Structure prediction request, 815 residues.
Amino acid sequence: MTWFLEHADVVGRLAVQHAYLAGVPLLIGLVLALPLGWLAQRGGPWRPILLTGTGLLYTIPSLALFVLIPLVLGTRILDPVNVLVAMTIYTIALLVRSVADGLASVPAETAAAATAMGYGGWRRLVTVELPLAIPVIAAGLRVAAVSNVSIVSVASLIGVAQLGSLLTDGYQRFYGEVLLVGIAACVVLALLFDVVIVGVTRLLTPWARAGRGARPGSGPGSHAGSGAGSGGGPRAGGAA
Amino acid sequence: MIGQVWAWLTDPEHWSGPDGIPSRLGEHLSYSFLALLVAALVAIPLGLWIGHTGRARWLVSSTNAVRAIPSLGLLFAAALYLGPYLRGSAAFLVPGLIVLILLAMPPLLAGTYAGVEAVDPAARDAAKGMGMTGRQVLLGVEMPCALPLLLSGVRSATLQVVGTAVIAAYISLGGLGAYLSEGLNIGDYPMVAGGALLVATLALVLDLALAGLTRLVVSPGLGGTRRTVARQTSRTRRGAGTATNSVPPPSHPSTPRESRAS
Amino acid sequence: MTNSTRPILSVLAAAALTLSLAACGGGTNNPLATTTSGGATGATGTGGGAVLVGSADFSESALLAELYAGALKAKGVNASTKLRIGSREAYMKGMQDGSIQVIPEYTGALARFYNKDFAENDPTKTYDALKSLLPADLTVLAKSAAEDKDSITVTKETADRLQLKTMSDLAAKAGDLVLGAPDEFKTRPQGVPGLAQTYGITFKQVRTPLTGQAAVQALKNGQVQAANIFTTDPAITANNFVVLEDDKRLFGTQNVVPLVAKKAVTDTVTAALDGVSAKLTTDELRALVGQVDIDKKDPAAVAKEWLTKNGLG
Prediction:
């Protein structure tokens, strides 16, 4: 415990760096995954291409991807940008499927109702379908967030300073406390990300809480149920 | 740079000896396979049992939490705390293998459980109606129906293990990851990139092989076109169409496929 | 506020939060700073600018880097450290492209890096030869009396059992032994190739990467029978290890010396670093490394204490 108390500031600084390296790709990946997931969800040739393609990218082990990106982008091998790009790729790979599944889980009745009310394709997508897809997307985002925090720690092997540095330092010095603090900090950070995402999701989906008690993101059965009940969910009333 | 990497990969010296590519590849595969086997022997029966009896479900939900633990940390911790108690090469191999096994279990468990959960109750009822005993139902109906998700869990676990074995080179477990660790340590970047390409190729090949296996093994009545009775009509209307064979139920948040910590 | 604008606001809020985190998380370790990945223009330019002191990835190197940086700072130079870059082969690229300006080095090993057949053993001759071997943009300042060499070290029990006193004794027995060493030892001229050529030693297996405390523990617990441990490592005396005598002088003489980019050399820098080199002895270095490795103190704190005690900080 003594080491941690004396070095809490160092751990804090590394944690912020870590959050940056894990969080920014999360946001960028989400933004990029939305159109890709929408494309995949429409079916046709895009779906297998996108899903298999992103699935294949996801299989590349993290350290390998960190050092392969310089070959493609021409950055230097020990450049932190490699980490950001790699994490964005992983995030997109995870989220494309979530977005596709989320959009696919929107009950057809709701979409039909929106069309009947005069919503054009784009407006319907943004104001009706995406909000309803949020629970599923958020579930994928949670997985991506936790996964990102865990993978970023590997970047200490290419000299990028973040919580993983505690892991390598602890092992090199055979200093158990540093190692354990590093592991604990990563877990705590992952939990933090998770809590924030759950909180934001709750904020964005007030209709899911409205008395029904239906758990966001549960099986197809509940979607049919809540679909009928919340067909008029996102109150498209007038002001857009 | 790419030319140098290609030169490194095609150098015949790198294809022989204990530091050669075949030898390291063999190490990597044997560690991975061993870890997966042991993990499967524990996790799959456990998952079947949990899914079948519905007890101890908390085990499955807790597997999500394991994803949060950095695998690099687990490897270093195992080497630091377990290594000193072992002699000879075991001091390096055993901690690494233990961590690989531990990391392979959550996806296998989650996949098996999800598979059993997703078994169409109608099929189960029909089997019981036909007079099958509990065990016959499990082996003859539940397992084949659970196979897509189970294999999805296997894919995920393989990915996890092969990926973690890469960084296990840092606790001198050898394997293909040693090209990355050695290359980074001595600044031989063609070795680093060459090793990375080998590792990425291995992961891809294994994943595609398992995908192919899934397609072979899973009964065509399942998972093929996703138009089973239990699915909502709304989904077919959205044109979910043909999916890759290991797509889990879409709104299942803890998809076994999507878990990795390294 | 309608439900359609709320998601947009949330995303904006999240983005703002992340950006503000990045802003306060920036500073010396900003992941996107270009000092670590600087191109040819580097981070300094002429002396008087910032000086980045790098280190290899073992604790003595980190300690020396902190000593240098602390001495420089005490004389008003804007110095900072970039620790644990990797082995010599890795950090030399940083010296060459200007990412770092100073790094603690060892005379014999550095000379060997530029001339594989370098075989000088006298400290002064080694130093002079080194100066002529360096490329045009690098130079070394005054060398220190402190020395830290490679070694092949075994436990007392192994030495007694196999009657080992010198490295020549090892030639006959090495075939049954496993050596633990860092990665670079496998290919360096004074490493595995040198062992074979000079002494006829070929180990059963060379296990890498084993450095620092991991190597010490592996040797202590019998996971390897011999290890490449540096001679100032306090673990040697702490564990009663036996350093095999380098009777054919494969490992040369290794005085600690700062390698500096010529562009960064100023009178202040020279004075600061020469001051450290003058006061540092092998025993003092060993004691300092002991504080870092065994007492688990911070290299920066240990360095600061020593500098203050010797009037350099």
About this structure: Confidence is low (pLDDT under 50) at residues 224-258 of chain B. The CA atoms of residues 75 and 136 of chain B lie 41 Å apart.
